[in-house]
Amino acid sequence: MSAALRLARRHPDAVCLTIVLLAAMSFKLGFALRIAPFIAKDSQAYFLPAYDLVNSGQFELGLRRVPAYPLFLAGALVLLGDDLRGIVLAQHLLGIGTAGLAYVLGRLVAGEHATAGRAIGLVAGLLSAISAPLVTYEHYLLTEALFAFSVTGMLVGLVWAYRRNGLGGWLLAGILVGLAVMVKPIAQAFLPLALVAAYLAGASWTRVASQLRWPAPTRVALVAVTMVAAGYALAIVPWSIRNQLVHDLASPSTFGRTLIARTASYDRGFVFVDPSRPEHDPTRARAAQIVQRGADRGDSDGTIAQRLRQELDLDPVEVNAVMRDLALQAIVRQPIYFAEGSLRFALRIFNGLEIRLRDHEAERKDVEWNERTRSLLAFVRSEDDARFANGLLKLWQPALWAPLPLVLFALGVMASLIPGWRLGLLVGACVTALVVASAALNGPQERYRYPVDPAIAVLMASGVAAVVVLAIQMLRRVPVAASVTTSPLSPLSDAERGSDAGAMNRAPTATDPVGARFIAPTGS
Amino acid sequence: MSLGRRMLGLIRRHPDVAALALIGVVAGVLRLAFLYRVPVILTGDSQSHYLPGYDLAFGNQFEPELRRPPGYAGFVAGTILLLGEELRALAFVQHVLGVATAMLIYLLGLLTFGRMAGLVAGLLVALNGALVLSSQSVMTETLFTFLLVATLMALLLAGRSGHWGWALLAGIGLGAASLTRPVAQALVILVPLAFLVYTRGPWPILRGICLVVFGFAIVLAPWMVRNLAEHGTLSAAGGLGRSLVARTIKYDEGYFDQSRPAADGDQKAEVRQFIRGKRNTIRNSRSVRSTQAGLMKEFGMTQAESDRWMRVVATEAILERPAYYVEGSLKMAWQIVLGKPKEDAYSERWVMRGDKDWVEQWEARVDHLLTPSTPAEQSSVETAQWLTEIFQPAALGPVLPILAGAGLLASVLVARPALVPALAGLGILLASAALDGPVPRYRYPLDPLIALLAAGALVVAVSWTVGIWRRARAVDSKRREPPQGSLISPAPVTGASR
């Protein structure tokens, strides 16, 4: 036993990671093997291309879909056989990996303070391990599980690249951003943040006034930015070329339909036909009337798109372009309303919705499943198992605690202002970007938040950790330590500037009491 | 530094972690590919193993048959509580145990023949189709294999480190293995050897043995006491009589030939005559269950009494021809290690599933667990068959058993700690053959140990060959060296002179 304790003391990160992975494994597998896979309306749009790819070698994907998830499904079908339970099992295994990545993210975000980093990582990892939204959407044939894994992996990549500030790291970070886009196009929102992070990591902080500095460009910063862009291009260009060849549209995806969903299906306040500004193009005028009619009736974006295609005899690319233009036109007409509505939706997404097993099981009823794969849906339900699984979902549901998660998230973002913890700002910016972009471009679908739940958990934990550290410091009346900034002009600490690659392995020292180095003001 | 170099550096720094990861990935991927392509395999004995566990999990009356110890039932109950009642959840956990067994064999190899032998053995276990197939079955083999290998590992660590924790753990493991399959009780006699191969000090050996026996007893004793109270027999399981009858009648035709009319009141003779009268039924049916049921009914016996009388009668028959029994048992042991390729093939199981309607044989309360074949299962028979054929020990004929025998010899010479797993395997093999018969699945728990010994033999042979070759080269180069102090060195061989 003492040998095991010695081993644990020598490898505390391995021990924490093992705890997180074991918790995730028992929770997720306890759910996964009890309940039949969940099917949503969109499931078939991903599953059928994968099924056809495996069985007939054809891969036909809708214009607005990106290929990573169908390819993942195809891989799972090849590896595990034509059984939907096998696919969701693979997604739950991915979820276990996501919980492990949440630990790593928390560990890295807290900078060189190993104890705080481990505590943040452990809390974030455990919250991700037992999260009801995450486990529920790992059980769906939807992109969320893969997206959560790729986004958390991307954030780990970005934070790691920032700390190391090596070219390889930034290239990898760019690739990871691109791969996330290949899972869900909304991840394009992360690209500017990744570019800014790469720039800031290499920039030279120049004083422009007594208290004001700005990041002047350096060769290193520009090369880092180039590497992110190159990595991103490596990941998305092949699919964009394919889209150019197949649809004559050189982009990884389109947002026309989602914008119509946002402005016409989820929101009734936008005006698409404005008598004061009549359309000159008769097709556009007719399209605007169709969209307005759909908005008035509360039709789904799919129904509106179908009407446009049928009544105006347009192909999918044209339909998408018309929808995009009409939606943007409507938004431009009411920008304040759009911003206000988007913020309201973002708040709704962040607070989430209570997850109940029966709602998700019932969703299958609305799905018209293709005949050739219908036999895959035959499952037996056990009442005992369903009861137990429903109980598991009550362990950690952020929505039931609203608005506490939002408050703690905000606290975490504020804690990220502390030197040494500033990489939390990058994580917070990515979370905010995804939630706001989802709200602005698509609508108030609660599931859009779930992929960043591990990142939210990291910031919630770091917010609490910062409060604890401050409290301990106040109790102990620790004298303010000297600043740890490496340059008198830089507002960043060693770790943030990438000069401390070994911080992950460094144990706290006797001369470095809890939080002392990180609570200290900078630039003294 | 390139990523490849960095990876190589990492592997060099942590070779054991890399080897374990490789074995884990190979074993995991193969088992994942199998899990949903194949229905959970049920045999005639599956229900008697599963049902007590199901009842335990749902708070029903826990009444396993006397011959069934509670280890597997407890495992089933734990799986149901943790992952639900679907049979595939049980198969999933068994596959996880299969992966763990492959990784443990690597560690056992590390402790005995060295890293390379561990890696080869671990990969052989990871790819073993028979083990993969047994993990998909509702049978005790996978759990028993894992417990057996883990116990041997703990036993060797106890002997090597002298730490009380490992010794206690080894005892608990041995107790758990015995509660899964009673044949593991035979391994108690090997406990002193695990300490003797590392030390000659009487105190560490005595202390270690006491701790192992203590651990063994605290696991086994409660169930034995329960059996005493319930069935009047102080044993972990009461199926020896039944298996000895199977051994002497079902798998051997050299006993119970002569009819011996029983005198009035001579119950032993009456029982013998009864069993003899049923010998054709026993040979033609799947098990001795109906004969035991008949015995209980005819003579008004309890389960324990009927088993005791069967044991007495079979032992008497064996003692009449001891040499024949030994010879027969050795032949059966050889049959077990050789295996039957047909028995280990998935296609056979699939056909069997189609032929027999297991649903009718299972009790109503677990009826819902038997589901019809899924489309994936129906369309994946060939793929699943291919997956089990990647490595099938039985397909290699006597190669692996012979290599394992060589490994046993090598362990005597160069790797004494390997004697513990080697003799453990041998003990279980002989006990299975002598007490039950040549049932092919009895080889599965031995497969990891056979793989370990075979890999050990190969590694020892290769290292000896390399050593001999190096010595020969060294001698040769010494001969070619000019004598010290010689003024004339040999002329360099030029292209022209050649």
Structure characterization notes:
- The complex is a heterodimer of chains A (524) and B (498).
- Chain A is an all-alpha fold.
- Chain A has one domain.
- Chain A is 64% helix and 2% strand.
- Chain A has helices spanning 2-10, 12-32, 43-56, 68-80, 84-109, 114-129, 132-138, 144-164, 167-183, 190-202, 219-247, 256-265, 282-297, 301-312, 316-333, 335-351, 357-362, 383-392, 404-415, 423-441, 453-476, 516-519; strands spanning 204-207, 213-216.
- Chain A has a two-stranded antiparallel sheet.
- In chain A, strand 1 and strand 2 form a beta hairpin.
- In chain A, helix 6 (114-129) runs antiparallel to helix 21 (453-476) and helix 9 (167-183) packs antiparallel against helix 10.
- The longest helix of chain A has 29 residues, at 219-247.
- The two termini of chain A are 48 Å apart.
- With 498 residues, chain B is an all-alpha fold.
- Chain B has one domain (11-234, 332-473).
- Helices cover 69% and strands 0% of the residues of chain B.
- Chain B is built from 24 helices and no strands.
- Chain B has helices spanning 3-13, 15-35, 46-57, 71-83, 87-112, 115-127, 129-135, 141-161, 164-180, 191-196, 202-231, 240-250, 267-277, 279-284, 289-299, 303-320, 322-338, 346-355, 358-361, 375-379, 381-389, 399-413, 419-435, 447-480.
- In chain B, helix 1 (3-13) crosses helix 2 (15-35).
- Chain B is globular, with a radius of gyration of 27 Å.
- Residues 486-498 of chain B have low confidence and may be disordered.
What's the gist of this structure?
The complex is a heterodimer of chains A (524) and B (498). Chain A is mainly α and 524 residues long. In chain A, 64% of the residues lie in helices and 2% in strands.
